[in-house]
Amino acid sequence: MTTEVRVKLPTHLRRLAKVEGEVLLPIEDPPTQRSLLDALERTYPMLRGTIRDTTTGKRRAFVRFFACEDDLSNTEPDTELPRQVLEGTEPFLIIGAMAGG
């Protein structure tokens, strides 16, 4: 079974993927962060390596994940996505973190 999930990308990744606004991704069961990112990279191969390391699969240091006002950046990749994301009422947000001083 597949589920469609709304994903919001930061501006620089939208430009790279040549998309406007949110993207709608069909993801396979189980609907996890890993399956979402797999679908994103499959649909937009130019994003491969920009969100997670291609060797380890770990999230890049300056990329954060949010949904339903919760920071999901440090959750296990195989944790199921929040119900609101699966129902389409909330998007999965990929945010470019800020650093500096």
Distance between the termini: 46 Å
Strand content: 15-25%
Name of the CATH class: Alpha Beta
Count of domain modules: 1
Structural class, from secondary structure content? alpha+beta
Mean pLDDT: 93
- In N-to-C order, the SSE pattern is EHEHEEHE
Report on the biggest sheet.
5 strands, mixed
- How is the CATH topology named? Ubiquitin-like (UB roll)
Widest beta sheet: strand line-up: 2-1-5-3-4
- Overall 3D form: globular
Give the beta-strand count: 5
Q: Helix count?
A: 3
Weakly predicted, low-confidence segments: none
Classify the helix fraction into a percent range: 10-25%
CATH architecture: Roll
CATH superfamily: Beta-grasp domain
Radius of gyration: 13 Å
Description:
With 101 residues, this protein is of the alpha+beta class. It has one domain: Roll (Ubiquitin-like (UB roll)), CATH 3.10.20.30. It contains three helices and five strands, in the order βαβαββαβ. It has helices spanning 11-17, 33-43, 83-87; strands spanning 2-8, 23-28, 63-67, 70-71, 92-96. Strands 2-1-5-3-4 form a five-stranded mixed β-sheet. A hairpin with a 2-residue loop joins β3 and β4 (70-71). The radius of gyration is 13 Å and the shape is globular. It starts with a strand and ends in a 5-residue tail after the last strand. 24% of the residues are buried. The model has no long low-confidence stretch (mean pLDDT 93).
